[in-house]
Specification:
280 residues; alpha+beta; paralog of FGE (formylglycine-generating enzyme); four-stranded mixed β-sheet; three-stranded antiparallel β-sheet; 5 helices
Length: 280
């Protein structure tokens, strides 16, 4: 009887593992916790004040979404650097990333997080999305979405408190500092003027690749200044004109720090811009 029960447990565990993998392909489970978001460096005003943020457990893609994955779901590849389908998809608007998240949720039988009444397409290509009418976001849904800015920084830091998640000196002081970045990120010094296949450099300690470098990544939040109060699972301002970008691109030199922020209009497409997905 003991061995039969053990066999049942093993079979059930296998079924649960397969179920998890089918709904969370290529993702990492990020443990909940509290961290200090932002930077104390007064040179970066929009990263201040440093404030306490608590994040609940969530899943995040280990790598940015590739051109291969995007094309499989969306039936087109908008990217500029198309020499390898395992390069990150780029030239995607924030709206394109949202539509991909919904399509991925549907493929796995999950709730769609984003709801809208109309879709506006680019007039030249007829494919890229430039607007979604009456957009609402259901954070309680179990489907895929873009990470919040706080989730992104929390996952990027992976428990570290240094400027770069791999440690090292900031600003760069020695050749060794530069070589350390080369082994951890795709940036202007080693990028050959374009993206590289995702996961080409070392992951952070939570097993996530390209959290700095390769492409800037769209986040869910509207961009605005920080407050000083502690927060739990913040989702950003309720309105705005520009969406947050995190992670830095292949063409950058000084923005690889974990706290670094950027932003752009959600309909903008750029060969610096990509994304990855999360889900609860």
């Amino acid at each position: 009887m003991f061995f039969k029960n053990c066999a049942r447990v093993a079979i059930l565990s296998s079924i649960l593992f397969i179920f998890f993998c089918s709904r969370n392909p290529g993702m990492r489970k990020i443990p909940g916790g509290t961290f200090q978001m932002g930077s104390p460096d007064t040179s970066f005003k929009d990263e201040q004040p440093v404030h306490s943020v608590s994040i609940s457990t969530f899943y995040i893609d280990k790598r940015p979404v590739t051109q291969k994955s995007f094309k499989r779901l969306m039936k087109f590849n908008p990217s500029h650097f198309t020499e390898d389908s395992l390069h990150p998809v780029e030239m995607v608007s924030w709206f394109d990333a949202v539509l991909y998240c919904n399509a991925r949720s549907k493929r796995h039988g999950l709730d769609t997080v984003y709801s809208y009444t109309s879709v506006t397409r680019d007039g030249d290509t007829g494919k890229s999305c430039t607007g979604l009418g009456d957009l609402t976001i259901d954070y309680a849904g179990n489907g895929f979405r873009l990470p919040t800015e706080a989730e992104y920084e929390y996952a990027c830091r992976a428990g570290t408190t240094t400027e770069y998640y791999w440690g090292g000196s900031y600003p760069l002081r020695t050749r060794a500092d530069t070589l350390e970045i080369d082994s951890n990120a795709i940036w202007y010094h080693n990028s050959q003027n374009g993206t590289e296949p995702v996961g080409s450099r070392k992951p952070n300690v939570w097993g996530l690749y390209d959290m700095s470098g390769n492409v800037w990544e769209w986040c869910n939040d509207w961009y605005d200044s920080y407050g000083s109060a502690g927060q739990t699972d913040p989702t950003g301002p309720s309105t705005g004109s520009k969406r947050v970008l995190r992670g830095v691109s292949w063409g950058e030199s000084r923005f690889l720090r974990a706290a670094n922020r950027s932003y752009d209009l959600p309909n903008v497409r750029n060969d610096y811009f990509g994304f990855r997905c999360v889900r609860r």
